[in-house]
Target: Hexosyltransferase
Amino acid sequence: MQLHISPSLRHVTVFPSKGFKEFIKVKVASKRVSYRMLFYSLLVFTFLLRFVFVLTAVDGIDGENKCTTIGCLGKKLGPRILGRRPESSVPEVIYQTLDENLGKNELQGRSDIPQTLEEFMTDMKKGGYDAKTFAVKLREMVTLMEQRTRMAKIQEYLYRHVASSSIPKQLHCLSLSLANEHTNNAAARLQLPSAELVPALVDNSYFHFVLASDNVLAASVVATSLVHNFLRPQKVVLHIITDRKTYYPMQAWFSLHSLSPAIIEVKALHHFDWFTKGKVPVLEAMEKDQKVRSQFRGGSSAIVANTTEKPKVIAAKLQALSPKYNSVMNHIRIHLPELFPSLNKLVFLDDDIVVQTDLSPLWDIEMNGKVNGAVETCSGEDRFVMSKRLKSYLNFSHPLISENFHPNECAWAYGMNIFDLEAWRKTNISNVYHYWVEQNIKSDLSLWQLGTLPPGLIAFHGHVHVIDPFWHMLGLGYQENTSFGDAESAGVVHFNGRAKPWLEIAFPQLRKLWTKYVDFSDKFIKSCHIRAS
Model:
């Protein structure tokens, strides 16, 4: 066959290949169609036709599908043209078998279930099973693997719970050694701060920081990293609040490890006049909360024994049993205006943070009448950490929550917060906090399960000023997706989560940010066998 196109592109003539005189002549209207467009369309059509035939020929090449090229093309395009989906090549019996539920104890004691994919393939090749038997074996193997994976995940959460809730013997040793030093060494019983520096404790021209902790080693890292990175350490006042049992070890440590010219105050809760007068709402709430938890949760054994709940739900319930969530050190921040009546502004630090930059610019942030300067946790590059909204902490299936708050409202973080105490004293934030804690106890902990952040989110609702995420990087204690480089470039890093940097379950690559502020040559550190790794 020959194709002849006239020079003017007005005639297209097709000659038969055997010299037959007949020909087909197509005359194209000059005014309606672009001749060049027709020419190029023919070329493109010829190319596409060959391309489609090559693709559809693949089915003909396959030994299992014996069909002509045109037949295969029809099978592929026919259902789509008619608006139908092509028929599946998977036998319906496989879908039906896989969709059937297995009994709870149906797989117990079975030794004929393949343990690996390799064993499964070997059985299939040897047995020559039909489609239904194939599906049954596959369902049993996958179900068994799911059960074992679930159990392994729950055991991991349980071990992490035990490790994070216990006091490592090294830290216990450190407290005992320092308490002994406090008894025997007058230099470990210094007044902190010295008498001439006491006026600075209420002087608002200084940069005031508050740290509440019963962990001496953790407090030392926060204090050391804060002072070493501050451009004007002589203007730093760090108020350390601790409990009665930790007061002597804490005083001994900071008496023997001076951070001069910074001013360090160590004070136990029972030293505050406000705390010893009358009833303290937070202590009453803690006592009730502890009773409810012991009755409602049933302990870690009962939680782990649950076979219906997802591992993440079990992990959350285990975390709720952690002693730190019922610690007065966690709740005390809601009483900062009463504890420091002379101060106008301060920065509150958790004991699982590390300061990596000068924090004096925090005092230049205009709060616009807000009380709490905090980093929001609902947006950022790290979606795993920065994806927290109110629905992440509060139970919106409860009418008390759903009627008062919006589930998608952005949450914020404790750990490094700027508090404008002057603005705080003009609000009823503390009373709102205690009201909601009481409501949660009355509802058997059905408003939220753990921690001081949920009631804090409620109490400070409408009183939060959002600050730059640079000042507070979160999540270093429950995930290791954050790179060392990104963490190192943050102003403050927070090891919130179970994997605290002083525990053996800490993430090694991130723990280095914390250990750089520990002097492992110190005699107390060495004698208690506290090591970098």
Notes: Residues 18-31, 57-66 have pLDDT under 50 and may be disordered. DSSP finds 21 helices and twelve strands in the chain. Residues 96-164 form one domain. Residues 170 and 530 are 6 Å apart (CA to CA).
